[in-house]
Amino acid sequence: MSKRGFLNSLSVGKHLFGKPKTTCYPFTPKEPALRYRGFHLNDWDTCTGCGNCAEICPNDAIEMIEIAELESVPGMKNERPRLDYGRCCFCGLCVDICPPGSLRLSRDYFHTHFDTDTFVFTPRDDKADQEKFVPDESYSVLKASLSHRKRNYEGFSSDLDYALFEPERVPMPEIPPTERKLSFVEQVIGYSKEEAVHEAARCLGCGLCEDACPAHMKISDYILAVYNDEPEESLRKIYEDNPIPAICGRLCMKHCEDACALRLRGEPVAIRWLKRFVSDSIRDYKTVLEQAPGQPTGKKVGVVGAGPGGLSVAYFLRLMGHEVVVFDELEGGGGMIRVGPPRYRLPLASIDKDVDYIASLGVDFRFNTRVGKDVSFEGLRQEFDAVYLGVGLTKSRSTGVDNSEKCGLALDFLRKNKTDRPTAVTKEIVVIGGGNVAMDVAREALRLQQIQHPGEKTVTRMVSLEDWDEMPATSEEIEETREEGIEFNPAWGPKKVLLDDGGNVKGLLCMKVKSVFDDEGRFAPTFREDEEMVLEGTMIIEAIGQGPDFSFVPEGEFEKMEFTAMRKVSVDEDGMTSLPGVFAGGDIVNINLDAVTAIADAKIASEGIHRWMQSK
Amino acid sequence: MDRNQLMKWIKAPTKMAHKYSLNAVYFCTGCGVIEVPPTITSRWDAERFGVVPTATARQANLFLITGYVSVKTLRAIIRTYEQMPEPKYTVGFGSCTINGGMYWDSYNTINQLDKYIPIDGYIAGCMPRPEAIFVAVTHLWTLIDKDMADGYKRYRKNYAAYRANQEMILGEMEWPPIFQTEVATAITEREG
Amino acid sequence: MTNPLGTRLDATFKGVELRSGVDGRLAVVVPREAIVPVLTFLKEDGYDYLQLISCVDWIDRGEFELVYLLSFYTEDEVGRDGGKQEVLLKATVPREQASAPTATGVFAIAEPHEREIHELYGIHFEGHPRLTPLFLDRDYEIPPFRKDFDTKQYVADVFDRVPPIDEEG
Amino acid sequence: MRELELYFGPQHLGMVGNFSITLKVEGDRILEATANPGYLHRGFEKLMEGRSWIKNFPMVCRINLVDPDHMEMIYAMGVEKLAGIEVPERAQFVRSIYLELARVSSHLFGLWAYANMLGFDTVSNWAMYHRDLVLDLFEELTGGRVYHIYVWPGGVRRDFPEGFTDRMVSTLHSIGGCVPDYDTTFFNNKLFSERARGVGVVSREEALAMGGVGQVIRATGMKYDVRKVDPYAAYDRVPWEVHTRDDGDAYSRICVVRDEMIESVHMIFNLIDAMPEGDVYNRVPNPLKWKIPAGEAYVRCESSRGELGLYLVSDGGEKPHRVHFRTPSYAHGLAILEKTLVGANIADVGNIMMSMYVVAPEIDR
């Protein structure tokens, strides 16, 4: 360490002539990195208000607050996250878990103030909040703050590969189309245990689905129970609102999955299949549920129709301790559910499993007894303290074109197939209609053709007024039907049934449809007279919708019943019709036409009946 | 910037000179101190704004409280703050001084700092960047111009309340109250 | 236990229970009194590096579990020389009037660890040179790291009760 | 001479960080020193018991403010070991590059502190300027300047943005280019070496007895580095060697730091060349209800200050049951510092403390 060691450190003087290294901020601006984690931006249109960001925030900096000007819609609450920048640590966990990806961080980070209240901030983005996000020319760094920010200055934003939730659903094992069209065995095989736990792990527990479900089932609770590997606890949670899980597990219109927070950038949680997994994995409900009917109240309730509505009313009232008798003309429970859906979607065993459990609670089921024929409606009203109408839509409508009496009706066709003597089908069948029932009819006809004419060439055709995008059937249903090779003729209307000289059906003369609905959206089809087509077919089945059958109500009473504009039975908030003591619910009251809305009506009606009977 | 406005220099030279020579006391109170060295060294160079770290509280008039304040540090902060000559300004760095930040549920950190000593300005961030610190300094200038940076006057006026809060947390404090209430009110009147 | 160290430990101490090692570490459970003798034995055996003394509060079992983690300095590039591996010495201490013998006699580094555990868990270490407070300024009736001390409740009782300074006039 | 008690308190020009030492002094010589930490105690481990596994991530990197990345890494390794998550190959390389970059940035901070302490302002300005260039790289990679929250159980949070490796290489070359200047003005400068030689000598026996790690024992000639002894991430796939010095004083400690910094830069270049393609994140189950099976794990990694250990206990719930960080400054700042200060003079307190790289929040957690 000679003296030179001291002197040669002066050689560093060469840096005197280099470029100055100081960044003279704020005069020479410095752009933050593209991924910088600054203040929040939230796109209020895609934000569902699910609250997962508030749930994941490690410092409780995010609080969901009600926004008056937004209105709450199933799948979109009117709550938006509010940030407290006195707590936030800018970690970006909320951005990574935001299912719709609406919450992201910007590259703004300037905010200085002496008052701590200004650090609480409800983020919006420059699309919606023009006066806070100023254009570049009027943006000045010295005035920058939470209320003076730059436009499209996006920083750290969500990326699906690194999201904290699992966008893809656990694939559900199914029987492939070629194999499933040969038999009536159940198409969806169902989740195994660890598949169900893995799927249940995807649920973030935000509760959007519970608001969307007509019956307001406790969905996040029972999915959490499936995740914790306790199917018993999960079944108890289901049974608090829905007494027919096996049926709903296979059939529900799943409003909840349309509202699931994960739907926007991934597949929603398979809530219906998880409910089915729970009901399948428990052999005997009774041992698990230990539900005992309440103290007998000495009151008796008659239920007309053992459909989802009737079964639920019976279940809820039985738990309250009332005597319940259910009348149904079919040989088993389920009502329209027993007749309509084919066995490859809903095996009869599942229906009976739910119905038998309700029966085991002491509900008296009287099958093969049609009210109005074997038992009179008036007799019912005297014998029972209250009556519940859960009859559903049982009459199939016909197109009314000439020779239409030669065609089969959808519900009779489906009902006959449930018995041991299914309908004899020919090799060429034409099905009229575009709804879910028409799809079921066509697919059942296809299977009967394979069974009754093995090896021969068979054709199943569908003709529907509606075009591809207007068909009322669900897209899954249409997709599955096309997979099985059924021919579609959308936007054609039936004109005349052609008969051969022997008087039996030869084909269907069809006309091209110009439009189905008029400008107010009412069903008023118009046709192009010049364009016609003949569809060969030795058998035609009409599946164009069902109507209610009130023939069992005597004339005098029927006038007193009031109906709504949509020709539905009008009921008060307790579910009581205009006839005192007569309650109603299900497809004859609401327009949703699905099982879970019938259950929701049944819950309301059962409380209504209970209050009404106590007040009597 | 109003650096070249001559009139201001003539009208209130002490305030202007005071504004451009903010000496920050060299006390690293919390985890925000990691952003102070880059600010005072060559890359960002806070000296362009007149902010220079000084050794002791006696020569300082700016107190940067960087980050969360634990109970033991609160004692040191209050002591340092009270040793600083007036006029003095305090700036709270980051979320922890505003509403507890990440350690809002910790048994050893205080949540709102302005319950114990007056704060003239908070900077958002966890940790505020050097650029945010410079913009905050410009905001402090405007506050000083408008005489709104009056933390120390508020401290003197409500000293009893501040002292009470401090003793609620720190128990007995080993130095007596620095303002007898009569003396404090006398100074405030004189200053008007 | 084919583990060489395990057999030697069995030979010298009777109340020693050996558990399978957690990822290559031998877990040795000893009664409270046997801590210092086992530590000295291990130190002579080459485990000269006491990494940490930790304390786990098993409140449902009503006991503290003191964990002494012993390792060794090695210059060997590959790591394990001569088959040695780290030892996890565990001893349980009852929660009421918890006390344990000090290890400062054997390892000098034990002194701050034990002071910290004394302050945060309330375990008294007999024979410790200075059990004065290390971190905390305030005194807490329940030592803060115990499971029955609820921080959120404490913040609500103490810090949130301090009134904000309201500007009179 | 009369004995005096001097508070080398939290507010002191010679003190970097919030830490205080009470010195019993006779004239200029220190008779007895008692470290007095606790100014930065937030009860980390208690707070972490109240948060679920993923929520602890933003908190864990705030334990050591100079080198937050090794804290994230050690917690990620602990959680992965307990939950049995494997990390994709490329993520191991990304983690190693990220950690070596963090080591360079934290060594530069140490160099700033030490040079500033001894009055070498030119060197400290350079060091902080170069560190700021590294922080720009971090900001581009992770989105945060100091606290990156980038290492994640199951890999890392985002992959390299394109063109990042070239910018990183060019920045490191520009820093490497200044090494001769650092040497002439600081390391080989007689002014500094006279000031640091023979100060704060820690013999190997003392260091080992008091649990010294990292630079403190590497300066006594012992080749002990966790990246070699217990390799993690991609450290065993790239050739590199451990640097040591022999006489255990402040000068050799800071020279070990200098060699390690250069070694890290070379290691980054090798890692970049050997880095495979592929994804960098193996998705973790839903964090809101992620339960980790009961068990305990002890993981180690070599942080810039020495060996960092984490003892993690899970009782099968959604939150950790017990977290205990064994930080290098714990041994250096309390046991070894108190012992080496005895006999030194007051002016050297900062010198010794900074050469041992003591960081206050690591002690109090």
Number of strands of chain A: 23
- As a whole number of angstroms, the C-alpha radius of gyration of chain D is 21 Å
> CATH-wise, what's the superfamily of chain D?
Cytochrome-c3 Hydrogenase, chain B
Oligomeric description of these chains: heterotetramer
Task: Estimate the mean pLDDT confidence of chain A.
Answer: 87
Helix-strand pattern of chain D: EEEHHHHHEEHHHHHHHEEEHHH
Largest sheet of chain D: 3 strands, antiparallel
Overall 3D geometry of chain A? globular
Shape of chain D: globular
Radius of gyration of chain A: 32 Å
Structure description:
The complex is a heterotetramer of chains A (616), B (192), C (169) and D (365). Chain A has 616 residues and is α/β, with parallel strands linked by helices. In chain A, helix 7 packs antiparallel against helix 8 (231-239) and helix 13 (308-320) runs parallel beside helix 21 (595-615). Chain A is globular, with a radius of gyration of 32 Å. Chain B has a single domain (2-151), classed as Rossmann fold (3-Layer(aba) Sandwich). Chain B has helices spanning 6-11, 13-19, 36-40, 71-83, 94-99, 130-145, 151-157, 159-170, 181-191; strands spanning 23-25, 52-54, 62-66, 69-70, 89-93, 109-110, 121-123. The longest helix of chain B has 16 residues, at 130-145. The model of chain B has no long low-confidence stretch (mean pLDDT 87). The termini of chain C are far apart. Chain C has one domain (4-157): Beta Polymerase, domain 2, CATH 3.30.460. In chain C, 36% of the residues are buried. Chains B and C meet through helix 4 and helix 8 of B and helix 4 of C.
Secondary structure blueprint with pairings:
The complex is a heterotetramer of chains A (616), B (192), C (169) and D (365).
Chain A lengths: L2 H5 L32 E3 L9 H5 L5 E5 L12 E6 L8 H5 L5 E3 L6 E2 L6 E2 L11 E2 L14 E2 L26 H4 L12 H9 L6 H5 L6 H9 L3 H9 L5 H7 L3 H5 L11 H11 L3 H5 L10 E5 L3 H13 L2 E5 L8 H4 L8 H13 L3 E3 L10 H7 L2 E4 L3 E4 L11 E2 H9 L9 E5 L3 H17 L6 E6 L10 H9 L3 E4 L1 E8 L5 E13 L5 E14 L2 E4 L3 E3 L6 H6 L21 E3 L10 H21 L1
Parallel strand pairs in A: 7-8, 9-10, 9-12, 10-11, 12-23, 14-21, 15-16, 15-21, 16-17
Antiparallel strand pairs in A: 1-4, 2-3, 3-6, 13-22, 18-19, 19-20
Chain B lengths: L5 H6 L1 H7 L3 E3 L10 H5 L11 E3 L7 E5 L2 E2 H13 L5 E5 H6 L9 E2 L10 E3 L6 H16 L5 H7 L1 H12 L10 H11 L1
Parallel strand pairs in B: 1-2, 3-5, 5-7
Antiparallel strand pairs in B: 4-6
Chain C lengths: L3 H9 L4 E6 L2 E5 L5 H10 L4 E10 L4 E9 L15 E8 L4 E3 L8 H12 L2 E3 L24 H7 L12
Parallel strand pairs in C: 2-5, 6-7
Antiparallel strand pairs in C: 1-2, 3-4, 4-5
